[in-house]
Design goal:
Blueprint lengths: L12 H14 L3 E10 L9 E9 H4 L26 H14 L8 E8 L8 H9 L4 E3 L3 H9 L3 E11 L18 H9 L5 H28 L11
Parallel strand pairs: 1-5, 2-3, 3-4
Antiparallel strand pairs: 1-4, 2-5
């Protein structure tokens, strides 16, 4: 049995966030982070992009936190605030740039919402998805927030986006004593549970389909942000 601090795809939280500290030492001022996420908000569709403006870090509230332990004053203060984690100026410029590079016929929509961080690697249960939605989350995923926490600790500006690659199942699990189910065959019962279930291949396929569009649109948005002053003079974006 493994008893190390493995966290994300076999890496510890310290390893996951280490590149952010390297960026700080290299003089980077702004980081742009992207991820794949499950949609909790019923108005979100697969392929939509969510501009993050806040997050739920349940693991962090429970003590699994990238800043836990002795603080290094070289990077930031002991108790950094996160109420301003997602840079408002950068978000404003993204919305402006998005309007310029899209048309009314564009199938992908740009939303703005709250990201819920979960440890994984399992996808969320129906009850967990409903809980996160009731707590105010619009999308859910297994990455990004630790890096954002460390970036803000280091004083870096943060712009973060989620690509909705699947819709989370919020409907309650069918009850075994439902009268309408009593005469159904085992295969039919299994099919009921399969409806809407997230699969890793589904997520990968959605990501592949959106990859080129995401790269082009992100490139155009970042170009627009730079052109119209989204970054301060002399600022370095990673």
């Amino acid at each position: 049995m493994r008893r190390d601090k493995s966290y994300y795809e076999g890496h510890s939280m310290e390893q996951v966030t280490f590149p952010i500290r390297v960026f700080k030492q290299l003089g980077v001022d702004t980081v742009v982070l992207t991820n794949a996420a499950g949609g909790l908000n019923s108005e979100y569709s697969v392929g939509d992009i969510t501009l993050l403006n806040d997050h739920l870090f349940l693991a962090g509230l429970a003590g699994v936190h990238p800043l836990r332990g002795p603080n290094d004053e070289e990077f930031g203060v002991r108790f950094p605030p996160l109420s301003d984690a997602y840079d408002l100026e950068l978000r404003r410029h993204v919305h402006r740039a998005w309007k310029e590079i899209t048309t009314p016929q564009t199938s992908r929509k740009l939303h703005e919402g709250v990201y819920a961080f979960v440890g994984g690697p399992t996808y969320e249960t129906r009850a967990e998805s409903r809980m996160l939605r009731m707590m105010g989350a619009d999308v859910v995923g297994m990455s990004t927030v630790p890096e954002i926490v460390v970036a803000r600790h280091c004083g870096l500006r943060v712009l973060a986006m989620s690509l909705v690659t699947n819709n989370a199942v919020l409907a309650p699990v069918p009850r075994g004593d439902e009268q309408l189910l009593q005469d159904k065959a085992a295969g039919e019962l299994s099919a009921l549970l399969e409806e809407g279930k997230a699969g890793h291949e589904e997520v990968l396929e959605a990501g592949r389909e959106a990859a080129v569009v995401m790269q082009i649109s992100m490139g155009q948005k970042l170009t627009k942000i730079t052109e119209i002053g989204g970054a301060n003079s002399g600022e370095r974006v990673w």
